[in-house]
């Protein structure tokens, strides 16, 4: 059931509370995985501390504290390893190749215009804005996103929210997420930019026959 009342605290890492569109209920959203649920996620538990307390209760000498799955520093280290593994190795960057290998994952925002290959979307049956107007709108969106540049998690949340509301791509229903794709799957100039971005980096405007794009790399 939806959560009512005040926003609860003590949520696990990555989880936040959001309001439904009618502002009458809260739900839980994970900005790292995109998962949403009405059920409150269980808080992170320091298993090491629990084990030490149990040992003390029976008079045993607790073993040295070790990093466990629920520990914040361990989770941070794992996230850094994932990010490092997704980055090109020094001296062998895939972006220098004619057709880079591997896959990337991005979120994007698309603004179509009246010269787009298909000037219609789920937002507008007939798109009449000019190319210059599409550029101007997307530049404004980019400026809003980059206000959170010092906080990657908040930047990504703002990007996803704006993609859901503003993008003319059907991926708006997935908050702009295109999933993992190979270089050749997308239009070449789109892929060239996507594969060169660092994780959590926001691109400049990218133009294809579909319209004008803004891209943020996830992995």
Summarize the structure.
The protein has 219 residues and is of the alpha+beta class. The protein has five helices and seven strands; from the N terminus they run βββααβααβαββ. It has helices at 47-57, 72-86, 131-146, 152-166, 188-196, and strands at 15-19, 26-30, 36-37, 103-111, 177-182, 206-208, 211-217.
Radius of gyration: 22 Å
Per DSSP E runs of 2 or more residues, the count of β-strands stands at 7
Task: Give the uncertain stretches in residue-range form.
Answer: 1-8, 62-73, 82-97
Q: What would the average pLDDT be, to the nearest integer? A: 77
Helix run count? 5
Name the shape in a single word.
globular
Percent helix, as a range, is 25-40%
Q: Note the main sheet.
A: 4 strands, antiparallel
* Residue fraction in strands: 15-25%
| Order of strands across the main sheet | 5-4-7-6
Class based on secondary structure composition and strand pairing? alpha+beta
The helix-strand sequence is EEEHHEHHEHEE
Distance linking N and C termini: 33 Å
Write the SSE topology:
Elements: E1 15-19, E2 26-30, E3 36-37, H1 47-57, H2 72-86, E4 103-111, H3 131-146, H4 152-166, E5 177-182, H5 188-196, E6 206-208, E7 211-217
Antiparallel strand pairs: 1-2, 2-3, 4-5, 4-7, 6-7
């Amino acid at each position: 059931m939806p959560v009512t009342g005040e926003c609860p605290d003590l949520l696990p890492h990555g989880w936040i509370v959001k309001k439904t569109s009618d502002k009458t209920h809260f739900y839980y959203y994970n900005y790292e995985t995109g998962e949403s649920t009405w059920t409150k996620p269980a808080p992170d538990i320091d298993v090491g501390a629990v084990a030490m307390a149990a040992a003390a209760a029976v008079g045993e000498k607790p073993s040295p504290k070790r990093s466990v799955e629920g520990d914040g520093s361990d989770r941070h280290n794992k996230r850094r390893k994932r990010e490092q593994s997704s980055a090109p190795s020094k001296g062998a960057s895939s972006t220098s190749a004619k057709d880079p290998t591997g896959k990337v994952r991005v979120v994007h925002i698309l603004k179509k215009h009246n010269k787009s290959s298909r000037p219609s979307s789920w937002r507008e049956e007939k798109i009449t804005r000019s190319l210059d107007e599409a550029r101007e709108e997307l530049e404004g969106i980019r400026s809003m996103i980059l206000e959170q540049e010092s906080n990657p998690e908040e930047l990504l949340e703002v990007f996803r929210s704006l993609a859901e509301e503003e993008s003319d791509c059907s991926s708006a229903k997935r908050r702009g997420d295109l999933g993992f794709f190979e270089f050749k799957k997308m239009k070449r100039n789109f892929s060239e930019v996507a594969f060169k971005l660092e994780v959590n980096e926001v691109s400049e405007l990218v133009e294809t026959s579909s319209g004008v794009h803004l891209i943020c790399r996830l992995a």
